[in-house]
Amino acid sequence: MFGSCLESSITKSNENGEYEVSKGVSSVVFKSILGFYRYGYVACPPSVSVKELREACDYFLIPFDFKTVKCQNLKDLLHELSNDGARKQFEKFLEDHILPAMATCAETGMRECHVVILDEDDYINWDEEYPPRNEERAQLIFNSEMYRFFKFVENRDVVKEVLKEKGLKKIRLGIEGCPTYMDKVKHRGSGTRPEVIYNYIQRPFLHASWESEDARGRHVDFQCVRSKSSNNLLSSINVEDVLNVDRLPPDGEGNEFVEGANLSID
Fold first, then answer.
1. Which residues contact 126 (CB under 8 A, 6 or more apart)?
2. Is there a smaller number of Cβ atoms within 10 Å at the N or the C end of the chain?
3. Cβ–Cβ < 8 Å for 93, 73
């Protein structure tokens, strides 16, 4: 009954004498997966990383949480759980706050958006006559929960992966200085723009673009190609032809001129 299956390449053992159920799933990991159906949880072996066990659980459709996975390395386990939570949380932030800000930029013809995440207690008061430079197009979001979320580097890595999956480009995330209110103005003289000094606070930011052309120039790219023609005008002239040109008649014997070389003036 099983003779044909045992003779096929599907059930052949590897060099270690092990049978691979799926590519990338070792026998040790598969044995731990089988424990879920016997005991109701998966015990992570010491020789297996939590990330490898996580991939196997996703492949076999086993829920990965603190109830179904027993692991000695709590740091890596909680890290994987945090990545799942960060992805779900950012999807909510994206739908409720970030996407409306991007749509506001898109409605004005922009193809990129710069979002600054602020705490709800932050005080922002930009002067109308002297606004901070390069900040007039920034989208400010006042949300304390999102502000705490973006402070973690691991969460920003998850955000970047999600935005890439959604087709956005030129993604940048980090912490930058955000101007809050004008401190003072220095007047240098008539005819020159005064120097405006603002107070700054460090806040998370997100920058993404949806431009299709990737800002490629539409100009023609001319290349310097060496010309095949001679650069020396004298080398292109046949000296013999010049010497054999008929001599002009002496003065008074005629009024003949070489065409294009001289003009007769009455």
1. 132, 135, 179, 181, 182
2. C
3. no
Which band of pLDDT confidence, cut at 50, 70 and 90, is reported for residue 204?
very high
Q: What are phi and psi of 248, to 5 degrees?
A: -70, 145
pLDDT at 223 over 90: no
Residue labelled with tokens 């086993």: 62
State the Cα–Cα distance between residues 18 and 24, nearest whole angstrom. Answer: 13
The residues, any chain, with a CB within 8 Å of residue 203's CB and separated by 6 or more, are 116, 117, 118, 119, 122, 147, 175, 176, 177, 178
- Asked if residues 77 and 42 have their Cβ atoms less than 8 Å apart, the reply is no
Report the distance separating Cα 168 and Cα 99, nearest Å: 12
How does the average pLDDT of the chain come out, rounded? 79
Contact in structure between 113 and 211 (CB atoms under 8 Å):
no
Q: What is the pLDDT of residue 107?
A: 93
Phi and psi based region of residue 191 (left: phi greater than 0; alpha: psi -120 to 50; beta: remaining): left
